[in-house]
Structure formats: structure tokens, C-alpha cells
Amino acid sequence: MNRHALTIATTFLLSLTTAAQQIPLSLTNSHAKSSTAVLTTHENSRALQLIPKHKTDSGYVPGGPILFLNSPRLHNGAIDVDVSGTPAAGAPADARGFIGIVFRAQSDTRFEIIYLRPTNSHADDQLRRNHTTQYSSEPDFPWDRLRKENPGVYESWADIEPGRWTHMKIVVHGTNAALYVNHARNPCLIVHDLKLGDIEGSLGLWIGEDTEGYFKDLRITKE
User: Is the CA virtual torsion 174, 180, 186, 189 positive or negative?
Assistant: First the structure.
């Protein structure tokens, strides 16, 4: 991974609550899983691009591609971040541009995640629209198990555009989580039974393997 790729002091910062301390991401404060990261420009903003190391037939791969943050860890609080996801060049027709945030991670393959499927938002199919946002918990409660066992409970619609900046705010408390999109007053997705329980864990940036994905302006507010 390029050392300059993660020197993001002016554009990609963590803001810790009490002292409002800002901490730039660095090579020593993160590690990549099935991906590399580069600092670039997207939609007229400096951003971190996460690039899958290889592709498979599935756009959703447990454990990657992810950029894990070594610190801070989060128990209760809020995660604010701007994301931009769209199907990568050459992606299959059913690619969705998966992009989202890993939280309370216990290992590279055991974590909670809330993510977006940007191309679903304006689809001419109501059921597909209802699958725009998604919560899952790896490895025991992947999205397909949750959809099969509890249809419609862990996913919802949100108004987003592929390839454009979308603000995500994930508020976590106990075994509850809520997703707010584009600074809305009300959440578009609520979860009352986070599968890993009431625990602390690390954070990560996640994309699907057929996604061109960018992140900027990450802030963490701890309770």
C-alpha cells in the first residue's frame, strides 16, 4: 500500500468527541483486507479510494475488501462519513455498487456492517428499491440469511445516486443501530438486535468487489 495513500490529514479525519481531537489516518493506523487504498480526487473532493485486489463472481465477500482502522474503537456513538459507490467498469449487469461501514469488528471476518446498494435506489421495481440499504452481521448473519428469515426487516429504501457523494450517519447504542442518509432528520433503517451484542470493536471501510468506491470526511463521536 502506498504510504502517501493514507496520509489524509486535511481531508479524511477522525474527530473524537470530548476534546474534538482530529486524527489523520496513516499507514500505521489501518490495515487493508483484500484491497489497496489510494488518495485521489472524486467529485471535486479529495478522497480515499478503496480498490479490490481481485474479483470473484460475488459482489459481496465476507471479510473484504475492507480498510480496517486500528483505532479508535467504538462501543456506543455515531459514525459520520461521505461515501460514493458505483459499479466498476466491466462489472456484471447485476452489480449494485455496494459501499458501507464496518463497525464493532472483532476480527477481519467478524463484524457488524451497514451498507448501500446505490443502483437500487431509483430502479423501476419497488422490491429492488426496498433493498437499497442493508444491515448484516458477518459471518453468522449475512444479508441473504437475514432476508430469507426476516424479509424486509434489515433493509430499506433511501434516495441516493450512484457515483455521487452520499452522507451516511450510523448511530449505535447497546444492541440498537440507526442509519441516517444525507442529513435526514429521521433514520431510513433501524436495527434493534445487533447480532454481535452490546460490545466494543473496531471500524472499517467496505466495498463490494465489483464496486468503484470512495470515502471522505469520516468522523467518530463517542458517547
Answer: negative
pLDDT band at 63 (very low <50, low <70, confident <90, very high): low
Q: If we measure between CA atoms, which residue out of 223, 222, 221, 218 comes closest to residue 14?
A: 218
Give me the pLDDT at residue 180, please: 98
| Per-residue cell: 103 | 463497525
Give the closest residue to 85 by CA, choosing from 183, 187, 160, 6. 160
Q: Where are the alpha helices (DSSP H) in 27-137?
A: 126-129
φ/ψ (deg, to 5) at 119: -70, -10
Q: What is the pLDDT of residue 11?
A: 35
Torsions phi, psi for 59 (to 5 deg): -80, -20
The set of residues, in sequence order, having a beta carbon less than 8 Å from that of 28 and lying 6+ positions away, is 70
pLDDT band at residue 12 using 50, 70 and 90 as cut-offs = very low
Joined together, the cell numbers standing for residue 171 give 448511530
89, 212 contact by CB (below 8 A): yes
What does the pLDDT look like over 144-193, one tens digit per residue?
999 999 999 999 999 999 999 999 999 999 999 999 999 999 999 999 99
Cell numbers 483505532 label which residue? 71
Going from the N-terminus, what domains does the chain have, and what CATH number goes with each?
Answer: 3-222 (2.60.120.560)
DSSP assignment string, 158-222: ----TTS-EEEEEEEETTEEEEEETT-SS-SEEES--TT-S--EEEEEEE-TTEEEEEEEEEEEE
